Amino acid sequence: MLIETRSNNTKDVLLELLAVSFLATGGIFVKFSSLGPINTGFYRVLFSLPILFLLAFKDLNQLKKKDVLILLISGVFLAGDVSLWNLSFSYTSVANANLFANLTPFTVVPVSYFLFKEKIPKFYLVGVLIAIAGVVILVLGKANPTQGNYIGDLLSFGASFFYAGFLLITYSLSARISSSVMMFVSGFGSLVALFVSSSAIEGFQVPHGWHEVWPLLGLTICLQVVGHNLLAHCQGKVNVNLSSVICLMQPVIATVYAFVCFGEMISVWEMVGIAVVIAGVFMVKMQYPGRNVK
How far apart are CA 18 and CA 197, in angstroms? Predict the structure, then answer.
């Protein structure tokens, strides 16, 4: 399966960085939510559907029955990512949860090579290894590691495989289906999966009062409507291998958010790790020069 070449223009890379900045706020709202982590994810998707419908309804006729089924499956992948990712915040830092959940290159690169016939530039793997080295430094440099931290790290790393599945599916469809349509239809798959898992694990919960609703609305707008919607749009503009590495910027941004909002201290080694991740991402971008695509 050969995917149409993406332009990889700088403006689209910057647009994806903006999407990642919105996605990085997720840990803040999850930490403030008094509902269970999976229930929190359920309402994040539920509240987004009316908004996404308004954005998508003009283009829904472009869908085929096969597309609907594929998008529902992508929604299940996103639900798996949301469940494990939200659970991880109960054990580890906002920065680390974002970090491990975005280790998608481990899955995306080999799958895109065999499934989409994506060529891997000469120095791509060097840039990825540099970014991963930064990841290792960032993890080992955590100020006060505990056993709970590593449980949370494992949960968020598991989320990365589900997230990679979601990215790969949206990438395969993004050339001909709008991002709002993809997020709207996939939302129903996510909703069913999150309802079943939340009911089985936490018991179904209903938010009461503004103090329980506002974090859910924050997740709805920043992640589901803006973050993932914008990221899905960028899938039609940016090569999936480059896109997956750009997502490694999410823990860097989340580290800053966590420091400002929760006072999570940043050690010197974590700062070094952040710098190395940025260098790796920059090097990978250099392997994908922007170009015009007809």
Answer: 31
Q: Enter the tokens of residue 82.
A: 């949301």
71: region left, alpha or beta (phi > 0 left; psi from -120 to 50 alpha): alpha
DSSP assignment of 92-127, as one string?
A: S-HHHHHHHHT-THHHHHHHHHHHS-----TTHHHH
Residue 51, pLDDT above cutoff 90: yes
Q: Tokens representing 173?
A: 């469809």
CB contact at 8 A, 236 and 6: yes
Instruction: Note the maximum CA span of the chain.
Output: 55
Contacts of 223 (CB under 8 A, 6+ apart): 22, 23, 25, 26, 29, 44
Q: What is the mean pLDDT of residues 21-28?
A: 88
Cα–Cα distance between 96 and 77 in angstroms, integer?
21
DSSP state at residue 290: -
Measured CA to CA, the distance from residue 32 to residue 147 in angstroms comes to 23
Provide the 8-state DSSP code for 91: T
Range 47-50, long-range pairs (CB < 8 A, 24+ positions): 47/216, 47/217, 47/220, 47/224, 48/183, 48/187, 48/220, 48/224, 48/225, 49/184, 49/187, 49/188, 49/191
Residue 65: exposure state from Cβ atoms within 10 A (0-12, 13-18, ≥19): exposed
* Chain segment 56-84, per-residue pLDDT in tens: 998 888 888 899 999 999 999 999 999 99
Q: Residue 92 — left, alpha, or beta (φ > 0 → left; ψ -120 to 50 → alpha)?
A: beta
Please tell me the predicted confidence (pLDDT) of residue 145.
57
User: What would the DSSP string read from start to end of 202-262?
Assistant: T------SHHHHHHHHHHIIIIIIIIHHHHHHHTTTS-HHHHHHHTTHHHHHHHHHHHHHH
